[in-house]
Design a protein that fits this description.
It comes from Rhodococcus sacchari. This is IclR family transcriptional regulator. The protein is elongated, with a radius of gyration of 19 Å. The strands form two sheets. Strands 5-4-3-8-7-6 form a six-stranded antiparallel β-sheet, with helices on both faces. The chain has a two-stranded antiparallel ribbon with strand order 1-2. α1 crosses α3, α2 packs across α3 and α6 packs across α7. It is built from eight helices and eight strands; from the N terminus they run αααββααβββααβββα. Helix content is 43%, strand content 19%. A hairpin with a 7-residue loop joins β6 and β7. It folds into two domains: 66 residues, Arc Repressor Mutant, subunit A, CATH 1.10.10.10; 149 residues, 2-Layer Sandwich (Beta-Lactamase). By secondary structure, the protein is of the alpha+beta class.
């Protein structure tokens, strides 16, 4: 593994957690890098527009990342948006599309808030979580063959078609998700909602399951 590339990517991942930026010293201290090394890496990232400095010399993510991200699962994001919007409005809760990113992690690719609700949960897309924590990851695991020592929640999700988790990603929040039927060569993904109250779990679960099926149809 390239240590230099690894350190540069660590800087980008760190900056993603601080939308208002960090100073060079803060980056250096957070990652345990010599200030000279951090400076050289930041200058390289700046040259590729992956990060930028403001008038106060604080460093934040750059617009070049937008260009790189535009082509990532473009079809999936384009087709998922209207499905998530319809789901969010139907259950009056924040809807999300989560994709499997690695062997043991998932990432929130898209988050859609309802247009009409008294109160709802808000969080940013891009968050990464363990595959076996949270309803989306559990739903994806349930779409796969059974594995030894898998969680009971995965087994229940495999039976009813959707997974439920409480407080595993955001405290006091209940997640209800269903896996998007897998396409050969495609990304493993799940559609879900985040709610405060699961007293209407069956209705919400049915809506989530229907949304996942609709997205699968659109993806062909």
């Amino acid at each position: 593994m390239s240590k230099t590339l690894h350190n540069g990517l660590e800087i980008l991942e760190l900056l993603a957690q601080y939308p208002h930026g960090l100073s060079l010293s803060e980056i250096s201290d957070a990652l345990g890098l010599h200030r000279t090394v951090a400076h050289r890496l930041v200058r390289t990232l700046e040259a590729h527009r992956l990060c930028r400095r403001d008038d106060h010399k604080r460093i934040s993510l750059g617009t070049g990342l937008v260009t790189l991200a535009e082509s990532v699962e473009q079809d999936l994001r384009t087709l998922a948006r209207p499905v998530l919007e319809e789901l969010a409005d139907a259950v009056e809760a924040t809807a999300h599309l989560v994709v499997r990113e690695s062997a043991d992690t998932v990432r929130a690719m898209m988050v859609i808030e309802p247009r009409h609700s008294d109160v709802h949960i808000a969080f940013r897309p891009g968050q990464v979580h363990p595959l076996d924590r949270g309803s989306a990851g559990l739903a994806i695991l349930a779409s796969m063959p059974p594995r030894p020592e898998e969680r009971p929640e995965v087994q229940r999700a495999r039976t009813r078609g959707y997974a439920v988790s409480t407080g595993e990603v955001v405290s006091t929040t209940i997640g209800i998700s269903a896996a998007v039927p897998y396409r050969p060569g495609g990304t493993q993904a799940a559609v879900g909602v985040s709610v405060f109250d699961a007293s209407d779990e069956e209705r919400v679960g049915a809506a989530v399951l229907a949304a996942a099926g609709r997205l699968a149809e659109l993806l062909g």
